[in-house]
């Protein structure tokens, strides 16, 4: 239970990082505040999961409803930290923690801004690649080559099919995945996106636009970490 609570606190912090880094704001020094009225939040309003429920997802001062993304981020990262903690070796914990945290952060920036934030994308993947090489993880040249050709083709001939940031993300992941794992990742990501799209259509939600990094991250979790 303690690990889960620590994970919810980290999830709240990562949500702040994802919100502020694209805006070039400090995520270490300035205190959290309401996005609408800019009032600084008090300590009891920052308790993961509990505060938002007690406040009914509304700012106590201006009464404007705030996004539930941070609440879900706390809940999901709490579960992810439990999953990371249960890995059998320190090496597995390190790889799982860095990779899933990177995917989680980029998922949040895509949800907030429709953006694969470069200031998070490249440094975090530089760290991931260093760890993978240091731990002697197998480098799959064939996956990188095939994904590189596909990414180049999509960027040249189907520019609106998938965003450039999504393609770069897949390229950075591809050397550490077998072809079967990569195919499963794309299948799970695409299928889950279609399910959500159909759900929106059934609910008659118009102007549907889905960020794709959350689905890619879910596909990664299933293809690499679960199976």
UniProtKB/TrEMBL annotation:
Residues 6-85 form the Prepilin peptidase A24 N-terminal domain. InterPro entries: Prepilin_pept_A24_N (IPR010627), Prepilin_peptidase/N-MTase (IPR050882). The chain crosses the membrane at residues 71-88, 94-116, 141-162, 182-203, 210-226. The keyword Signal does not apply. It holds the Pfam family A24_N_bact. It comes from the Bacteria. Keywords: Membrane, Transmembrane, Transmembrane helix. This is Prepilin peptidase A24 N-terminal domain-containing protein.
């Amino acid at each position: 239970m303690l690990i889960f609570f620590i994970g919810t606190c980290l999830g709240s912090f990562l949500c702040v990082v994802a919100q502020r880094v694209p805006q070039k704001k400090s995520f270490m020094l300035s205190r959290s505040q309401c996005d609408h009225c800019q009032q600084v939040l008090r300590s009891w309003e920052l308790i993961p999961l509990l505060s938002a429920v007690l406040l009914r997802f509304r700012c106590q001062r201006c009464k404007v409803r705030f996004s539930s993304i941070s609440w879900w981020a706390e809940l999901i990262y709490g579960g992810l930290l439990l999953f990371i903690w249960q890995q059998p070796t320190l090496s597995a914990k390190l790889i799982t923690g860095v990779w899933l945290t990177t995917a989680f952060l980029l998922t949040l920036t895509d949800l907030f801004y429709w953006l694969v934030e470069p200031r998070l994308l490249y440094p975090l993947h530089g760290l991931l690649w260093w760890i993978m090489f240091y731990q002697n993880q197998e480098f799959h040249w064939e996956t990188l080559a095939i994904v590189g050709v596909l990414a180049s083709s999509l960027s040249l001939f189907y520019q609106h099919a998938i965003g450039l940031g999504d393609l770069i993300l897949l390229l950075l992941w591809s050397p550490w995945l077998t072809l079967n794992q990569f195919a499963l990742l794309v299948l799970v990501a695409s299928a889950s996106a279609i399910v959500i799209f159909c759900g929106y259509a059934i609910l008659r939600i118009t102007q549907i636009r889905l960020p794709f990094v959350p689905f890619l991250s879910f596909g990664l979790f299933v293809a690499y970490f679960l199976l």
